[in-house]
Amino acid sequence: MPPAVASDPRREPLSAEIYLRDGDVVARDLLGRWLIRRVDGMTVAVARIVETEAYLGADDPASHAYGGRRTPRTETMYRPGGCAYVYFIYGMYHCLNVVAGPADTPHAVLVRAVEAVEGIDWMVAQRGRPLPLGRGDLGGGPGKLCQALAIDRTVDGVLLADGELQCSVGEPVEDSAVAIGPRVGIDYAGEAVDWPLRFAIRGNAELSRPRLG
DNA sequence: TCGACGATCATCT
DNA sequence: GATGATCGTCGAG
Fold first, then answer.
1. pLDDT tens sequence across A56-85
2. CA atom of A210 to C1′ atom of C11, Å
């Protein structure tokens, strides 16, 4: 692919309406899009989304907002789609979500894997792992990609149109390149364990475990 | 206040 | 495949 430059149309922010649809639609649409990480106004890294999961709010037993549960932590999900929802998990990791749907419809899209487009050295440094990094070790998992992009609770609520974390047009993918399967790590969610709400770019090297497609 | 648990990962066997 | 790390969050008391 050609190098990314400032005038690159792939860097144009996604329009706000994109995020106002249901979580599963947004999750599929975000494949191939770019996350642009900015620190103090400077772009330090660009990463391409290669795997997502949808969480469908009040009607989804796997969602933090199941049954309309509304707490200080989940408040961000009740905002209109288009901002980041970041939470802390297992005492050591963060997970990055894109809020979807209109206000008070707490849908979210968990970003499960990204691949580096630009600023790979910076991302590797953020990960703090000994080199060389193996397949999927940089951005192949929700905790890993948050480390690589230095995402923590301070990013929670950031607008993806113009904040410290942005989401741009990137390189959308064809349906034929998309693998779909059940979500990971939600064994507590009853019937919802089997819902086909995990989306990935088929065969991509940075997919999370267990691999889909 | 307290106890249980988690949308994970690295490091074992 | 199994397990420990590690702590914010939330519901129960």
1. 999 999 999 999 999 999 999 999 999 999
2. 32
Structure-token match 């009040």, residue found: A58
Q: From residues 125-144 of A, which are strand B contacts by CB within 7 A?
A: 127, 129, 137, 141-144
Instruction: Give the tokens for residue A120.
Output: 């790979």
CA–CA gap between residue A101 and residue A79 (Å, rounded): 9
Per-residue pLDDT tens digits for A31-54:
999 999 999 999 999 999 999 999
The reported pTM is 0.96
DSSP 8-state code for residue A121:
H
Name the E strands within chain A: 34-39, 42-55, 84-89, 93-100, 107-118, 165-168, 178-181, 198-201
